[in-house]
Amino acid sequence: MSNTGFTTTDISDALGDNAQVVAPGFNDFGKRRCFSGRISTVSCPDDNSQVRAALETPGEERVLVVDGNASGNCAFLGDQLAVLACENGWSGVVINGCIRDSEVVATIAIGVKALGTHPRKSLKRGLGERDIPVRFAGVEFRAGDYLYADPDGIVVTRSPVS
Asked: The pTM is what?
């Protein structure tokens, strides 16, 4: 058992098909390697404006799931947004895309999982949508569902795991 009171392996074993397991490929970048919370979503095409807008709100220990369409064109989160997320009480961020400033992000007390790194910043045109269902890595992420992440992977459930 992790120091967070859960492991994704235990959740997967206990819930079986009632838990969605995210396909492998996500790497840990934040200081917190175990994190969980209610899901909030952002869908954005190479533009992190809506990521910033979400992270500027009180996180209330939620997890922001960002569907960047697995883009390798730019980063959707860097050190400044990771600090903002931490300061506003977000538990973590899962990005179907890249981050930047990975050495600094590793020192910030927030969970961050992403596909990789990229030095280029994203566009800033206000594109994207928030709190809509997004689908990637074999899972549908819906605002209000629950996400559990640790070094073994990511699991999504419809209700909290006790």
From this structure: 0.96
